[in-house]
Amino acid sequence: MNNFKLYSQYYDLLYKDKDYHAEANYVLSLIKQYKPQTKTVLELGCGTGNHAAILCNHALKVIGLERSAEMVALAQQKNIQNFQPIVADIVSFTLAEKVDVAISLFHVISYLTNNQQLIQCFQTVHQHLNTAGIFMFDVWYSPAVYTQKPVVRVKKLSNSEINITRIAEPQIHYQQNVVDVNYQVMIEEKATQKITTIYETHPMRHFSIPEIALLAEHTGFELIHTEEFLSSQTPSENTWGVCFILRKK
Ligand SMILES: C[S@@+](CC[C@H](N)C(=O)[O-])C[C@H]1O[C@@H](n2cnc3c(N)ncnc32)[C@H](O)[C@@H]1O
């Protein structure tokens, strides 16, 4: 799967309005609540290191796993102290050390669309956690996906050099609990008005609470809490992103 290969160079611009500080502070509050003595964190799908940059400022050592070498290169350029981004697939990886907490933020687990990938990822995370370690992640939530239905979205952003227009067109696969998000990204160079167009498809799986509870049970975890990501509200049919907190049994 080639997603994020071309798109990665525009990633930070596309998400420049995303509140990484609020999200990292939210994660820190969950760590404080569920694993207060945490020193080491494994971040699955760390992207360009935007959450890690903040977490590492709070005396945490973060190892980041990221499939896109382009995203890892961008993360490395940020020279974040105590952050080690590694090109790796979260479905199967081997690290020399265990960590206190594993996190996966901004729907990374939704990129694992089949059961085998999910089981393998959860089992591998389990192997890399210390006793009673915590695994927390946010994913798309099936009740909201089927109530609200994904729609076509257009996002426009610019910096001093380029204008970007991104069109996201969803295609629902009811049998798989998967939505293919078909991205068309048009990049216009301001100086020359030359337009380059990139196409990428991101298949996204969505989950229900009993489904994650079953997956957790099957892979040696206990599902201890669910809430709306960031707001901490009880998940409802209006909650697109749900945060799941699992403890290693
Ligand atoms: C929406 S981005 C989120 C990145 C980052 N967590 C953030 O919040 O900015 C999803 C990321 O997950 C990564 N990813 C998806 N599947 C992966 C896999 N199997 N192994 C490693 N990384 C993966 C993608 O390359 C991409 O960087």
Summarize the helices and strands and which ones pair or pack.
Elements lengths: L10 H4 L5 H15 L5 E5 L5 H6 L5 E6 L2 H9 L5 E5 L11 E6 L10 H13 L1 E13 H7 L4 E6 L3 E12 L4 E12 L5 E13 L1 H10 L2 E8 L12 E8 L1
Bound molecules: S-adenosylmethionine.
Keywords:
249 residues; alpha/beta; Rossmann fold; N-terminal domain of TfIIb; globular; binds S-adenosylmethionine
Specify the CATH homologous superfamily of the largest domain. Answer: Vaccinia Virus protein VP39
Rg, rounded, reads 18 Å
Overall outline: globular
Order of helices and strands: HHEHEHEEHEHEEEEHEE
Q: Can you tell me the CATH class of the largest domain?
A: Alpha Beta
Please tell me the overall pLDDT.
96
Number of domains: 2
**Major beta sheet summary:** 11 strands, mixed
Number of H- or I-type helical stretches: 7
The helix/strand class is: alpha/beta
Distance between the termini: 33 Å
- Specify the oligomeric state: single chain
- What is the fold named in CATH at topology level of the largest domain? Rossmann fold
CATH architecture of the largest domain: 3-Layer(aba) Sandwich
Q: What ions, cofactors and ligands are bound?
A: S-adenosylmethionine
Percentage of residues in strands = 35-45%
Question: What is the percent of helical residues?
Answer: 25-40%
- DSSP E strands, number: 11
**Low-confidence spans: pLDDT under 50, at least 5 residues?**
none
